[in-house]
Amino acid sequence: MEPKKNPKADLTKNSGMYFVIGLAVVMLIIWRALEWKTYDEQTTYDVSLNVEDMLDEEVPMTEQIKTPPPPPPPAAPEIITVVEDEVEVEETVIKSTETSQEEEIIEVDDIAVEDVEEDIDVPFAVIEDVPVFPGCENEKDKRACFNDMMQQHIRKNFRYPEIAQEMGVQGRVSVMFVIQKDGSIGNVRMRGPDQNLEKEAERIISKLPRMTPGKQRGRAVRVPFSIPITFKLQ
């Protein structure tokens, strides 16, 4: 059997060039495919308004109507009183505020002013004339004599409460009272550690005699006075 292929034919000749050309063609086709652009079909419409049709219509013209202001309210009718000729009408007489020479003018010095006595309290330490304790009338220092007589009165009438002794209660009771304008003792107040001691201090003060009241500027006044009474167990 004879071979059909020509032994002189070289099939591999120019194969490299053909490969390169084919590759270039393929790359060109791929590039054109990637760069290919498509556009949607555009339809143009006439969007202009038909102005002529709109102008054919008659547009009514409007005018601003001015409303007249409301009329003013009618004035209130005057009340006219008809008076008959026979009726007498009293006329209003306006008296003058000026004084006449016939009126008597009272001078200020002729008006008597009554002195109103006010109840005032003047403390014992600052009063001009201190209250006089019975027995101190002839003493020069009536203030010192008053204090001495008060101490003598407390010692003379002092009595320790039995209940306070049994309970062992002791302490100081502050006593406040007022020597009234008539010399009597009033408004007695106590403050101490025990009620029994306070009652005993009140009993002692209640036995004070009537005194000569204190005076301020020659007038009798009320004089507050305070003194401590000490209760101490031995």
Oligomer state equals: single chain
What is the rounded Rg?
A: 67 Å
Instruction: Give the neighbour order of strands across the main sheet.
Output: 2-1-5
Largest sheet: 3 strands, antiparallel
CATH class categorisation of the domain at 142-231 = Alpha Beta
Unreliable spans: 45-56
Describe this structure in words.
Helix content is 26%, strand content 12%. With 234 residues, it is an alpha+beta fold. It has a domain at 142-231: Fusion Protein Consisting Of Minor Coat Protein, Glycine Rich Linker, Tola, And A His Tag, Chain: A, Domain 2, CATH 3.30.1150.10. The strands form two sheets. A three-stranded antiparallel beta sheet has the order 2-1-5, covered by helices on one side. The longest helix has 21 residues, at 15-35. The protein is elongated, with a radius of gyration of 67 Å. The model is unreliable at 45-56 (pLDDT under 50).
In short:
Residues 145-234 form the TonB C-terminal domain. This protein has 234 residues and is α+β, with helices and mostly antiparallel strands.
